[in-house]
Structures are given as structure tokens and as C-alpha cells.
């Protein structure tokens, strides 16, 4: 294993000698080969066969296409919910939002030491809440004071790696994503049954239909994809593009999860659709849009209410699926937990059905 700090300095050196073929600066003795993506031609022509991620049995993608709709929060809670199913699945999270990684914060892993390396040069996941994780944020050094926002407050906290931007062009990003996908040793991050690795890897994709989700869809053998949206027509306009991309790439789509779909009044216990996107109302624009792209009916696999403690749990690094409690049948927290468990059950059930 490399000495602490040496790896970060080598990756993010100011010199221009960093290789586009090895943007993460992994050791040259790394025995895990990467697939090659053709730089020209249609997205489905001339591609290598899709591959399994080493030491991972099943891959679940979490996409939103639109930023700010709670995708990463749902990804972390989905991973926890899957791990809590009666099957006691071994679940990990891969954060591929290279430019805006959120998983370390949501999993209580801010400012951890950089991950170690195995003997063959693979990344070792960092674990919390019994969930092994990997993120670009773990590889970033703390931002220098000159590159972060200046502060005259003597009580302000020093810059952290959350302040460090990743300023890379497309080819560097694609190669880094390939390294995170295929050069992370998920068997090293599992405490029980290490030789068998993970049952499920939840992959948190960045918003949009850019290089990263495109690369994943082209290279990885995916078992399930869920798309997160808020119940409004503006968010849905981006979802349509994402659904179209995944279908072109022949990536299996399990369904749509509507986040912050409604608010449960603590006094009257009625559901109030703050964004107007009641999926049971066939006349609103959101419902019509969902139906038009074939994601209505049982393809809506979850509708999560607005619950303040979900966001608060994420800020503290404790997923609500792990710490949340409900006080009654109509308690918003209990409704949220039941809906998230249902999403996890639906995903695992569909994976099992397609496998058999």
C-alpha cells in the first residue's frame, strides 16, 4: 500500500505529465484491464461486449437526468434498504458524479483518508454503516486557501476536499470513470464473505446524458435502472431524454421514482401535491408526460413524500432508511420508509425474475 498522502499528490500534481490513459494515477502493476471505447461512430456501433464489474453480481443504476431532485439521497437510502431486505444482501455504492460527489457526505465519510490499494493496484472501498463505497471525492486533496473562497472569519473551517474542483475534459473523465468501475476491488470492502464480493452495486450517476452515463451504459452489464424525478413537467422534460438514451443503449429500465411527490399534513393527514404532479390525476401535464414515454402505471415503482428528516439525516451522514422511525400509519416518515422498502423489493424481485 502506498504511504498516506503520496497517492493524492501524484494524482493531482500541477505538472502536465498526467496520462490520459491513467488519470487516477494507479500503479503500473494494476492487472485489471479497461475496455476501449471507440471515439467515433454511433453509440451502439463497434463497442466491446458489456462487462461485469469485478466482484459484483448485480448492478443497479440510479439516474435523475435533472439535477437537484434528490438522486444521491435516494441512492444511499436504496443501498441501505436493499441491505436490510430479508435476503441480507451485500450492497455497495459507487459515486460516479465526478464533478459533484455527494455520497461521502450522505454516508458520513467526509474528509476520510484516501483509499488504500490492493497488491495488484486496485482501489479498496471505504465502508460506513456496513456499506462499502467508492467516490472521486476520496481521491481529492484539500483545496488550498487561495483556490477556495477567501474568508476573514477566524472561526471558519479550513478548506476541505469538498472545495476542490475536478477540472478535467471529457477523455480524462471517461478514463477515470472506467478506472473507478473496473479497478475497484469490491471484495476488499466486504466484511462477510469477502471472496464473493457484492450482491448488488448501486451506481449513483451524474445528472444529464453526458459522457459518464453514456460510458456506463456502453461498457457495463447493468441489471436495473431507476430514474428519479420530482412531480413536475420541467423535471420530466429531462427524464424523457434520459429514458431515450437508456433505451438506445439497451439498458434495462425498472421504473420511475417520484421524489417529494406530496406533503402529508400533520393535522389532517391528507396528501397535498405541492408540485401539482398527482400521478392519479390523468389531466395534469406531469401524468400525461409520464404516460407518453411509457413510464406510467406499474412503471412508477415509488412515490416518496416530502419528509424533513430525510434531508437532515443526509446532512449528518446517516441515511434515513437506517435511522428513521414512524409514529403511526399516517406518519410521513413511516410512509417514506415503507415506500423506499417497496422500491428495494421491486428492484430485487425484478432482478431475480430476469435472472431466472
Automatic annotation (TrEMBL):
A single GO molecular function term of this UniProt record: hydrolase activity
Output the Pfam families linked to this UniProt entry: ParA (PF10609)
Chain residue ranges for the region called Disordered: 17-49, 140-164
Task: Kindly indicate whether the keyword DNA damage belongs to this entry.
Answer: no
Q: Does the keyword Nucleotide-binding apply?
A: yes
Biased composition annotated in UniProt, kind: Low complexity: 141-159
Name of protein:
P-loop containing nucleoside triphosphate hydrolase protein
The source organism is Lentinula lateritia
Amino acid at each position: 500500500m502506498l504511504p498516506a498522502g503520496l497517492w493524492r499528490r501524484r494524482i493531482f500534481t500541477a505538472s502536465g505529465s498526467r496520462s490520459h490513459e491513467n488519470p487516477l494515477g494507479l500503479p503500473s502493476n494494476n492487472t485489471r484491464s479497461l475496455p476501449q471505447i471507440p471515439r467515433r461512430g454511433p453509440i451502439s456501433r463497434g463497442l466491446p461486449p458489456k462487462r461485469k464489474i469485478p466482484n459484483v453480481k448485480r448492478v443497479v443504476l440510479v439516474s435523475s437526468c435533472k439535477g437537484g431532485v434528490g438522486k444521491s439521497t435516494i441512492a444511499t437510502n436504496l443501498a441501505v434498504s436493499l441491505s436490510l431486505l430479508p435476503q441480507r444482501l451485500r450492497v455497495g455504492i459507487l459515486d460516479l458524479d465526478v464533478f459533484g460527489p455527494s455520497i461521502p457526505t450522505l454516508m458520513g465519510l467526509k474528509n476520510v483518508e484516501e483509499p488504500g490499494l490492493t497488491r495488484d493496484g486496485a482501489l479498496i472501498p471505504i465502508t460506513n454503516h456496513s456499506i462499502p463505497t467508492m467516490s472521486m471525492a476520496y481521491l481529492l486533496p484539500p483545496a488550498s486557501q487561495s483556490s477556495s473562497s477567501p474568508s476573514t472569519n477566524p472561526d471558519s473551517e479550513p478548506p476541505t476536499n469538498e472545495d476542490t474542483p475536478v477540472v478535467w475534459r471529457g477523455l480524462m473523465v471517461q478514463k477515470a470513470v472506467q478506472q473507478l468501475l473496473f479497478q475497484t476491488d469490491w471484495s476488499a470492502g466486504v466484511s462477510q464473505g469477502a471472496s464473493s464480493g457484492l450482491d448488488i452495486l448501486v451506481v449513483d450517476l451524474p445528472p444529464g446524458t453526458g459522457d459518464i452515463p453514456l460510458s456506463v451504459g456502453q461498457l457495463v452489464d447493468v441489471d436495473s435502472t431507476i430514474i428519479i424525478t420530482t412531480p413536475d413537467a420541467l423535471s420530466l422534460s429531462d427524464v424523457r431524454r434520459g429514458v431515450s438514451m437508456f433505451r438506445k443503449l439497451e439498458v434495462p429500465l425498472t421504473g420511475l421514482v417520484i421524489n417529494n411527490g406530496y406533503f402529508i399534513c400533520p393535522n389532517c393527514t391528507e396528501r397535498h401535491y405541492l408540485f401539482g404532479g398527482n400521478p392519479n390525476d390523468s389531466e395534469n401535464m406531469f401524468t400525461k408526460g409520464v404516460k407518453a414515454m411509457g413510464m406510467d402505471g406499474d412503471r412508477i415503482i415509488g412515490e416518496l413524500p416530502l419528509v424533513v428528516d430525510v434531508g437532515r439525516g443526509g446532512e449528518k451522514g446517516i441515511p434515513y432508511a437506517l435511522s428513521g422511525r414512524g409514529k403511526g400509519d399516517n406518519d410521513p416518515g413511516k410512509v417514506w420508509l415503507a415506500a423506499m422498502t417497496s422500491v428495494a423489493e421491486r428492484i430485487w424481485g425484478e432482478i431475480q425474475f430476469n435472472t431466472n
